[in-house]
């Protein structure tokens, strides 16, 4: 009898895992089913380029069922409850799914209510609709104060607010309105970007581009009527356009099932990714409580490790590998250049790369390679 | 300071920069004046980060100690 692997979530983690698993094991050994509530897959790093007008919907989305290798079953359905002890998953339509191995790859969900006034007063680009709304504003603002930075403290893609700051600044130059727009970047810590080495490069670039860094500004609330953003530290800033990272949390099904911490992030073993206390249930990607960045790269590398380890476990052949926290994030700095952040569990001081055109070209290439090479499990 | 009992504990051991500080800020968001926040961290940069944060926010750093590679900061919330 083949072992039944049930994957909740068809984002990049879930899709890469499924495709790699059926590449490694024959149908006689494994049966893979992926459940997701939507049949559209978004390339989430592309939302940045939607906001800046450099990509369109068709560039960054695909029909989900077409992304799986032969032999993988895709079910469109909403997960309501996960019972790790009973090895069952309940869907909204009343279906109950059983499994031998479960992988939760449900990502995160936005939680704007954590910051009063966020919904009405803040723009962001963490989904398509928000990115399109932001695009309209970036292309229509003629003068005033633009504030970019960190709102919600735990959010997907640590470098995303830096990227939108640099790309918006470049866009304002191209539109000929830069000299009428004052730009600030707010950060809750004593510098713009946490890793010290790359922060020096980032702050130097911000100074060169006329973006003032406002430190120790932890966004506490937004007054959309008066267009003022307030910090926990007691400061307030006026804005005409406010672009902040939205607060995020684990998905409702995970929170309702009592699997995650108080924000719904799932505690897993940092190397083998099994949910604490279980050897047949795993979590990967943004859904975990690991201290790794919430990025597609992490989900990709975790999926690769877990696919290998599940294949070893099911086939009884080979040796398991560990996930080492490895991540490589390209950071668009505008003007045809990009920088990059490297991190892993083992770096005391994570290295960064000076902005250059090669990394920018790499990021653009990634937008294409994602569909053909990464999701399919080729690389 | 060992007799001071924390009212909130933030365990950020094993979390890289800026995780310990952002975890402290998250706890601070929900705290009230008089609370004692205890932060446990293993990131070497946390010591300097928390000292700068306390200075900037006007809260009180009761103690900061290090034992067995774990930094323990006790912060009295006074600026909420």
Q: What is the number of helical segments of chain A per DSSP (H or I, 4+ residues)?
A: 10
Strand segment count of chain A = 22
Low-confidence stretches of chain A: none
Count of distinct structural domains of chain A: 2
What is the name of the CATH class of the largest domain in chain A? Alpha Beta
CATH homologous superfamily grouping of chain B = TusA-like domain
Number of domains of chain B: 1
Question: What structural class results from the helix and strand content of chain B?
Answer: alpha+beta
Give the biggest sheet of chain A. Answer: 5 strands, parallel
SSE ordering of chain B: EHEHEE
Report low-confidence residues of chain B grouped into runs of 5 or more: none
CATH-defined architecture of the largest domain in chain A: 3-Layer(bba) Sandwich
Q: Tell me which CATH architecture of chain B applies here.
A: 2-Layer Sandwich
Biggest sheet features of chain B: 4 strands, mixed
CATH topology of the largest domain in chain A: FAD/NAD(P)-binding domain
Shape field of chain A? globular
- Cα separation of the termini of chain A: 30 Å
- Using only C-alpha atoms, the radius of gyration of chain B works out to 11 Å
Q: Class of chain B in CATH?
A: Alpha Beta
């Amino acid at each position: 009898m083949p072992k039944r692997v049930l994957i909740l979530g068809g984002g990049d983690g879930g899709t890469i895992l499924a495709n790699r698993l059926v590449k490694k094991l024959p149908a006689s050994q494994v049966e893979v089913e992926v459940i997701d509530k939507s049949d559209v897959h978004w390339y989430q790093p592309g939302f940045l380029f939607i906001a800046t007008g450099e990509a369109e919907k068709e560039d960054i989305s695909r029909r989900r069922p077409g992304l799986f290798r032969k032999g993988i079953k895709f079910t469109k359905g909403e997960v309501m409850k996960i019972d790790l002890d009973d090895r069952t998953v309940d869907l909204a339509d009343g279906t109950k799914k059983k499994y031998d191995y479960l992988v939760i790859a449900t990502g995160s969900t936005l939680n704007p209510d954590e910051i009063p006034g966020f919904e009405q007063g803040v723009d962001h680009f963490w989904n398509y609709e928000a990115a399109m709304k932001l695009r309209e504003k970036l292309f229509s603002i003629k003068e005033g104060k633009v504030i970019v930075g960190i709102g919600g403290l735990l959010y997907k893609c640590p470098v995303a607010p830096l990227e939108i700051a640099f790309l918006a600044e470049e866009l304002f130059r191209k539109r000929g309105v830069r000299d009428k727009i004052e730009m600030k970047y707010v950060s809750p810590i004593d510098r713009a970007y946490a890793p010290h080495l790359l922060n020096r490069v980032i702050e130097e670039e911000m100074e060169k581009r006329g973006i003032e860094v406002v430190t120790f500004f932890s966004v506490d609330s937004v007054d959309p009527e008066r267009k003022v953003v307030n910090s926990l530290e007691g400061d307030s800033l006026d804005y005409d356009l406010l672009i902040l990272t939205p607060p995020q949390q684990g998905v409702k099904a995970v929170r309702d099932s009592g699997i995650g911490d108080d924000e719904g992030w799932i505690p897993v073993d940092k190397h083998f990714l099994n949910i604490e206390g279980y050897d047949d249930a795993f979590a990967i990607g943004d859904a975990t409580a690991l201290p790794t960045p919430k990025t597609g790269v992490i989900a990709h590398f975790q999926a690769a490790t877990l696919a290998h380890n599940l294949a070893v476990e099911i086939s009884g052949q080979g040796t398991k590998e560990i996930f080492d926290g490895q991540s490589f994030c390209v950071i668009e700095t505008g003007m045809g250049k990009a920088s990059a952040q490297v991190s892993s569990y083992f770096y005391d001081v994570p290295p960064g790369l000076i902005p250059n055109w090669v990394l920018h070209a790499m990021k653009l290439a990634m937008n294409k390679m994602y569909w053909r090479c990464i999701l399919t499990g080729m690389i | 300071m060992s007799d001071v009992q924390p009212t909130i504990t933030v365990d950020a051991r094993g979390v890289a920069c800026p995780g310990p500080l952002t975890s402290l800020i998250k706890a601070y968001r929900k705290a009230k004046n008089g609370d004692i926040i205890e932060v446990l961290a293993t990131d070497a940069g946390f010591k300097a980060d928390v000292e700068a944060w306390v200075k900037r926010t006007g809260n009180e750093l009761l103690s900061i100690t290090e034992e067995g590679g774990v930094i323990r900061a006790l912060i009295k919330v006074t600026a909420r």
